Amino acid sequence: MTRATRRRLEFVIERLLFVCAAASVLVTVGIIGVLAFETVGFFREVPVTDFLFGTVWTPLFSDRQFGVLPLVAGTLLVSSIAMLFALPTGVLAAIYLSEYAPSSVRRVVKPILEILAGIPTVVYGYFALLYVTPLLQQVFPSMSAFNALSPGLVMGIMILPLVSSLSEDALHAVPNGLREGAYALGATRMQAALRVVVPAAFSGISASFILAASRAIGETMIVAIAAGQQPKMTLNPLESVETMTAYIVQVSLGDSPSGSLQFRTIFAVGMLLFVMTFALNLISNWLRRRFREVY
After folding, report:
1. Count of domains in the chain?
2. Which of 200, 112, 95, 114 is nearest to 165 (CA)?
3. Are 24 and 73 within one domain?
4. Which of 24, 90, 151, 172 is the most buried (most CB within 10 A)?
5. What pLDDT score was predicted for residue 291?
């Protein structure tokens, strides 16, 4: 291959890579643009304060109310249950795999955990509805068939590999010199793991927490199947709730005509969901940079 041919080939490859990078940026800008355009049209008819601070959400009824707080409450309730299950379990699994498990066990257990991330979420949804909910009803007889607890626990199982894998990678990346220094000072393996390794890897662990929270907040099928479609302001996990993503699914598959105010509610809810997850990602990046500088 001549030098001129190599230069032409490199030029083509460079332009192709640029097109791929620009396409991803343009797609993102297009999605945000559509959300923003439809959301502005929605807020021309509904005051922003009524949307953000209202406590009644009935946009599909004759007496229409557009207070989004019940959807936000349902989303945060289910996501909080998932995080309460996934965070401690994932971190403990990561500490075991990084600090205690032999390399042969680590090579087997870690891929098995990551298989959970490949299961379709609709399978998790029906697992929550048909298996976990009846099991929990034996413990809580007053639990509704659609509730926040069952999808929250199953969602915690779904995001468990995200927490454990990212946290284990962060722990595994801590230099062995820190561990050896702790052992030289008389620390046990547990003391070295909890007081030296975990603080040194806290940037990666905290980033896994935030990314898992973003994943839980944006989850759709599990809550659409098992949480119900009753938007209400409640902290009782035994009651039926509706999340922001479940409402978007409900309207998208319903009879609301395109361009109507009811149809534009999904763009307003989607924009709010985008802002929430974007804020969590910014917090994740800030925590990663902050604790990297500290440790």
Report:
1. 2
2. 114
3. no
4. 151
5. 61
Domain that holds residue 160: 69-294
- What is the distance between the alpha carbons of residues 114 and 91, in angstroms, rounded to a whole number? 14
Task: Give CA–CA dist 153/155, Å, rounded.
Answer: 5
Give a yes or no: residue 58 inside a domain. no
> What is the C-alpha separation between 133 and 217, in angstroms, rounded?
21
Q: What is the pLDDT of residues 211-239, one digit of tens each?
A: 888 888 888 889 989 888 888 888 888 89
- Rounded distance, CA 178 to CA 193, Å? 10
Is the predicted pLDDT of residue 288 greater than 80, yes or no? no
CA distance linking residue 145 with residue 149, whole number of Å: 11
DSSP β-bridge partners for residue 57? 66
Distances (CA, A) of 1 to 10, 15, 125: 12, 20, 56
Answer yes or no: do 147 and 30 share one domain.
no
Residues 234-281 have pLDDT tens digits of 888 889 999 998 888 888 776 667 778 888 888 999 999 999 888 888
CATH number, residue 177: 1.10.3720.10
